[in-house]
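Review form for a predicted model. The reviewer records the input and the model, then writes brief findings.
Reviewer: anonymous (R2)
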Amino acid sequence: MKQTTTESRPVLTGLKRGELESLVAQLGEKPFRAKQLEKWIFDKAVRAIDEMSDLSKAFREKLTAETVLSPHQVIETVSSRDGTTKFLIRLADGQSVECVTIVQDRHLTACLSSQVGCNVGCPFCATGLSGFRRNLSVAEIVDQFLIMQHAIRQGALKAFSDHDHLSNIVFMGMGEPLLNYEPLMGAIEILNRQAGIGLRRITISTSGIIPGIEKLMQEARDYNLAISLHSAKPEVRDTLVPINRKYKVDQLLELAGRYAEHTGRRITFEYTMLAGHNASAEDAKALATALRGIHCHINLIAYNPVDSPYQAPPRAEIEAFQNILVKAGYPVTIRHNHGQDDMAACGQLRLYSDEQLLKMVEA
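Model under review:
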């Protein structure tokens, strides 16, 4: 059993189907118990073994003694006016991580983190400001989804949405997913096969980790890919996305084109608009030229201010930027900033929580 807590008991939320079947056999139970267990964990998203009412009392006692359903706790939630809800989760070792339920007209989307902090170090990103602590395990990634699913089933979003379950996943939370490759892919396997989220409803976002994208292309199944581009100009991207100094933007875009051809899936380019840095007409024309020939969609994102010198440009400038790209033949969306009124920037709630804890310790 790979997914364990600090006390070395298996964490049920991180076990794949075959691992659940092996666990059930080790505990002396019949094979059908694995399917029951899987339904309670990944479909019904219960948070306590005692809630698994069709399991025998003896089996529940074995599970309680030999395993942990989840060692993770929600320590804070923040909801915005549109219903978008951010969860701050305490992990077994005391670290914390964020995940978000995004309320949309036709569905609910889970935005999941892959690392505690991030080592890419984008200067406008709240997660980057907090530094890198460690990678997340399969269980720690999957459990973000299950914690939010449970909250939704308990009516946490009933004032904002008629939907009672998460149906889409984006790995756009804290961290760089492709720098935590194996746990990421293990989590996606569970979320797809056991939690029932179709692969076309799962998107992996990257700052441009070329070896990780190449590895994705070798997988048996195809994955939706989003690239956090933020500039097509090498000298600008070197500053905004420091990993560009290692994985150059021209090489990244060449690979993106091959990825789209290989998988048949459209690449999404995420472009955070930063006044005075990447939002001019010249920047838009450079982007249009750089993306030529790539099957893609462009998301323009007005910056959510954090404790940094960056600011979002006026709406009129964003629309002018969009018009240049549209005239060049690209599909472009100005993305709504869900939850902008309540620490919406990724990592901001965790950063604030850590600062408050530090103040308490110093006092």
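Findings: Residues 138-153 form the longest helix (16 residues).
Further findings: Confidence is low (pLDDT under 50) at residues 347-363.
Recommendation: see findings above.
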